[in-house]
């Protein structure tokens, strides 16, 4: 499968929303969901269904999804190459929530998340932060301001500072096969 370099563009808002793993905040409801083991968490178990679920969720501030079928196929290919990853929450054997994004260098670029069951996507974010902390990631890119992510500790940063951090985080070569150990 080939990629069309002109098909997708990089969205670069100013300011940029970043979550530094050491600043992650766990709410009482999230803490309770984690303590009670409400969800079985898996990494890269069903990438295609995770991205499709993200695309199918109706959001109040969006008329339609920006995750189109061609984009899904390109991200599935990136997943096969070890660049795109998903974290999924299952309840009673069914996909209850999840997130996906790109891992490059010491950075994770979050693309989208969804939930069918309360706290499911938050538990996935907690797992991502656990992975990011263990692997010494600099930050998780959340792109644009979102009150939900802000409540979890994400904060805005101006583009010039973001680009400096981006350069530093991408300068470190990381073996993509390391993600296989997370499954």
- The percent range for helix content is 25-40%
- Provide the number of structural domains: 1
Average predicted local confidence, pLDDT: 90
Question: How many helices in DSSP terms?
Answer: 6
Radius of gyration: 16 Å
Terminal-residue CA separation: 25 Å
Give the arrangement of secondary structure elements.
Layout: E1 16-19, H1 28-35, E2 40-43, H2 47-56, H3 69-80, E3 84-91, E4 94-104, E5 107-115, H4 120-134, E6 139-143, H5 147-151, E7 155-157, H6 159-170
Parallel strand pairs: 5-6
Antiparallel strand pairs: 1-6, 1-7, 2-3, 3-4, 4-5
Helix pairs in contact: 2-3
What features would you describe in this structure?
- It is a single chain.
- The chain is of the alpha+beta class and 183 residues long.
- The protein has a single domain, classed as Aminopeptidase (3-Layer(aba) Sandwich).
- The chain has 6 helices and 7 strands.
- It has helices spanning 28-35, 47-56, 69-80, 120-134, 147-151, 159-170; strands at residues 16-19, 40-43, 84-91, 94-104, 107-115, 139-143, 155-157.
- A 7-stranded mixed β-sheet has the order 2-3-4-5-6-1-7, with helices on both faces.
- β5 (107-115), α4 and β6 form a beta-alpha-beta unit.
- α2 (47-56) packs antiparallel against α3 (69-80).
- The chain starts with 15 loop residues before the first strand and ends in a 13-residue tail after the last helix.
Give a brief outline of the structure.
The chain has 183 residues and is of the alpha+beta class.
Keywords:
globular; alpha+beta; Aminopeptidase; 183 residues; 34% helix; 7-stranded mixed beta sheet
């Amino acid at each position: 499968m080939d990629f069309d370099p002109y098909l997708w563009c990089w969205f670069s808002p100013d300011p940029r929303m970043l979550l530094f793993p050491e600043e992650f905040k766990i709410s009482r409801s999230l803490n309770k969901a984690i303590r009670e083991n409400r969800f079985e968490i898996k990494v890269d178990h069903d990438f295609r269904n995770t991205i499709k679920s993200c695309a199918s969720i109706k959001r109040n501030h969006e008329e339609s999804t920006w995750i189109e079928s061609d984009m899904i196929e390109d991200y599935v290919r990136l997943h096969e190459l070890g660049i795109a990853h998903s974290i999924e929450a299952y309840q009673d054997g069914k996909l209850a929530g999840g997130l996906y994004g790109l891992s490059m260098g010491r950075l994770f670029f979050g693309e989208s998340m969804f939930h069918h069951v309360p706290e499911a996507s938050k538990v996935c974010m907690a797992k991502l932060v656990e992975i990011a902390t263990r692997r010494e990631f600099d930050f998780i890119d959340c792109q644009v301001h979102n009150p939900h992510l802000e409540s979890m500790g994400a904060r805005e940063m101006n583009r010039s500072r973001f680009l400096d951090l981006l350069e530093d985080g991408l300068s470190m070569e990381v073996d993509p096969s390391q993600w296989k150990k997370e499954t």
